[in-house]
Amino acid sequence: MSNRIEAQCRTKGIRLTGQRRLIAEVLSQAQDHPDVQELHRRVAERDQSISLATVYRTVNRLEAEGILERHAFQDGRARYERASRKHHDHLIDLETGKVIEFTSPEIERLQEEITQRLGYELVGHRLELYARPRPRPSSAE
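The structure corresponding to this sequence follows.
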């Protein structure tokens, strides 16, 4: 898998030390929205010499450069994902903390309709749904 974050760093002229390169690689491979603690855990599996402070500094720099997007979901932890991805919304499982990405043409249409009806032009939005799994029907019946 190509390291898209590393490529974006090079484009923006960000110097990549070996530690930053590894952090960028782990972030590029993430299929979820890790917080800094989880990112550090993943990086440390490959190089134990990388400190939590280095991960924080790198993530902050990548966010400042527009390479990462920070999300502050209800659990209070800042989580990160690549910023260059197509628009999507999030559903957060309150029991597991899992973040599920989704798109909905119906929601996009409705948001546009509402802003127009109220006399506005939609320039952006962020939608986060917080949910619990539905109870499964009992099989005792």
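The mean pLDDT is 88.
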